[in-house]
Amino acid sequence: MERSRAERLISKGEGLDAIVILNDGCPFVDSTFWYLTELNGGSFESSIAVVRKDGNMDVNVSVLEEETASSGKGDVRVYRTRDERDNYLREALRGADNVGFNMHNATYSMVEYVRKTVKGIKVKDASSAISSAVSVKDSKEIELTREACRISSLVAEEIPDMLSEGVTEKEVAFRMDARMRELGGTGNAFDTISAFGENSSKPHHSPTGRRLGKGDVALFDFGTRYERYCSDMTRTVFLSRPPEVLERAYEVVLEAQAAGIEKYMDGAPAKDADLAAREIIDRSEFKGRFIHSFGHGIGMEVHQDISVSPRSEQVLREGNIVSAEPGIYIPGVGGIRIEDTCLITKNGCERLTDFNRSITIV
Hints:
Radius of gyration: 22 Å
CATH class of the largest domain: Alpha Beta
Distance between the termini: 52 Å
Number of strands: 19
Helix content: 25-40%
Strand order of the largest sheet: 4-3-2-1-5-6
Shape: elongated
CATH superfamily of the largest domain: Creatinase/methionine aminopeptidase superfamily
Largest sheet: 6 strands, mixed
CATH topology of the largest domain: Creatine Amidinohydrolase
Oligomer: single chain
């Protein structure tokens, strides 16, 4: 029988008697709360999930979230006053000594609230245990991510039809966002990057009123959420024939992505994919132009453990979902990036995003 997510999480927390997941208030909400409860709705401000050593979980929510919480995992406790919440928390942590918190997300004030409310606990960092648990996806998570990737892949295929001379970066980004919603997405995984010409050399460019002209490169980095799970992909196309240097860069990036993806498999050092792609780029005329890592984990957050960088010490595991996104960036000229979302399997990987990766000239 498959263990619950709460059981998998606490099994990673060596030496911990409990792990507490805190939602303070927007923007200080922790996706781990939705991961554990398997809910996809509700705001759950001032809600607390407590996973105990035996794998059982209490979910303390206000009366505002009672109906929503009842459809999720865990033993739901509904509070109407601050005193009720305090008492539920003390009960959930009775007998616990070493208590872990997600130090990557929890606010200082909320950790202090728990420490002062439940006397005698020792505050520990559970962020590594949380990262280890959420980085390996179960079958439900994989299917939700697969649907998010299907939606963004359909939008990628429509990009050439959105492009014409004079259209702005903002206009295309808006159309892409709208199409992701129309096709079933429940929100953006992140702000869509739409970059034309020289702007495409900035990996995290924000769309402007810059208009598309003949010979321009057009780079789009985007993703949708589907029931809280993210996709992430990049497509780079050209409006009429671009400068030859960018065509050459495109072919190098395409080769680099293939080399990196070949290293994606269960048990492989995560850094191997980055090093394989980087070797392709650095032996070309574009040495030093690959200025970020090859990939990162994807889940309820678009950037999540695993790190696929040349310095990573992590090992890929079956069930990891990671990006594969080499790039070449030439300031003042343009940039090329090709990205897919990939599922690590026992003997390789499966690309969950699907679009034409050969050079596209509109």
